[in-house]
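WARN no homologs supplied; continuing
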Amino acid sequence: MNLRAASVEDIESIQKLRMEMLKEVAKSLPYDLPDAIHEYLNTHIRDGSCLCVLLENEEGVIGKAMLCMYEVMPDEKNTSGKCATLFSVYTLPKHRGHGYMEKLLHYLLEKAKEAGVKEVLASAEKKAIPLYQRLGFTFKDNEMSIRL
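OK structure emitted
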């Protein structure tokens, strides 16, 4: 197994895995989603605000995880305002159950620390919650969101 940071040359592989992941969880996907993903990755991998780690074996890329970094208003717990959100943590179905997700997450969390990120947000499927908790993630009772 090889774990490495993605570059713009990997956008097609990342896009393909992202679409495979979304097909597992969504009933239908917008026709323009692949182009939107490609455009996002091209911009944000280049400028460093999206870190993507790839897991490869002799078959090619079998897993990935992304960390999208941004800044918010500093507060008493995060005076730098540097935050990140984990996205698209995914391993191909036939490669699940070997601890690869944990390796991907450890890698990205270490990179986040190196970048000065003070808070990382995540959402996860129920079956992955114990892993996130082992890594130190906690639930916040007062968090809310709205889709506009």
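DSSP finds four helices and five strands in the chain.
OK
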